[in-house]
Amino acid sequence: MEEHRLIGVRQVASPNCNARPTDELSLIVLHAISLPPGIFHGDAIERLFTNRLDAREHPFFATIDGLRVSAHLLIRRGGECIQFVPFDRRAWHAGRSCWQGRREVNDFSVGIELEGDHRPFTAAQYHRLSDVLQTMVHSYPELSLSRLVGHEQIAPLRKNDPGPGFDWQYLHRCLEGRRH
């Protein structure tokens, strides 16, 4: 970890972030995204997070035209990790959300997007996520694996990701394997 950035991952700066109100970084939120829905491996997610998505390219893109969102990280289907926002900045990933009575979850969380939808995620994604999570909890003392949630847990009436395709038990087995 160097200057709140992961070493060895591609860096793509997103303008969709701002200063955190405090230095607190105590929650990790997992998301799932595919753009257009159900399509993997293109550059649409990257273009969305950098405000370069052309609404004319696909009918779905017109429904999210003008949306300003980002995440700290994106983990692609093959395991590639891209960082859009340094961890000391507030990425715009959680939207209207609440965790343990606290609103404005973006203020104190890291957002990690997994390229996916309702289908199972890949082993490469779980292994990369496991590596990232171990680095995060080692680098930020307030973070722990017990403070890892899905978007559906902080915005249950609005969101359902990472969804039924995400295998929490498999992730925990990957994490256990990394500790030894």
TrEMBL record:
<dbReference type="GO" id="GO:0071555">
    <property type="term" value="P:cell wall organization"/>
</dbReference>
<dbReference type="GO" id="GO:0009253">
    <property type="term" value="P:peptidoglycan catabolic process"/>
</dbReference>
<dbReference type="GO" id="GO:0008745">
    <property type="term" value="F:N-acetylmuramoyl-L-alanine amidase activity"/>
</dbReference>
<keyword id="KW-0961">Cell wall biogenesis/degradation</keyword>
<dbReference type="InterPro" id="IPR051206">
    <property type="entry name" value="NAMLAA_amidase_2"/>
</dbReference>
<protein>
    <recommendedName>
        <fullName>1,6-anhydro-N-acetylmuramyl-L-alanine amidase AmpD</fullName>
        <ecNumber>3.5.1.28</ecNumber>
    </recommendedName>
</protein>
<dbReference type="GO" id="GO:0046872">
    <property type="term" value="F:metal ion binding"/>
</dbReference>
<keyword id="KW-0479">Metal-binding</keyword>
<dbReference type="InterPro" id="IPR002502">
    <property type="entry name" value="Amidase_domain"/>
</dbReference>
<dbReference type="InterPro" id="IPR036505">
    <property type="entry name" value="Amidase/PGRP_sf"/>
</dbReference>
<keyword id="KW-0862">Zinc</keyword>
<keyword id="KW-0963">Cytoplasm</keyword>
<dbReference type="GO" id="GO:0009254">
    <property type="term" value="P:peptidoglycan turnover"/>
</dbReference>
<dbReference type="Pfam" id="PF01510">
    <property type="entry name" value="Amidase_2"/>
</dbReference>
<comment type="similarity">
    <text>Belongs to the N-acetylmuramoyl-L-alanine amidase 2 family.</text>
</comment>
<keyword id="KW-0378">Hydrolase</keyword>
<dbReference type="GO" id="GO:0005737">
    <property type="term" value="C:cytoplasm"/>
</dbReference>
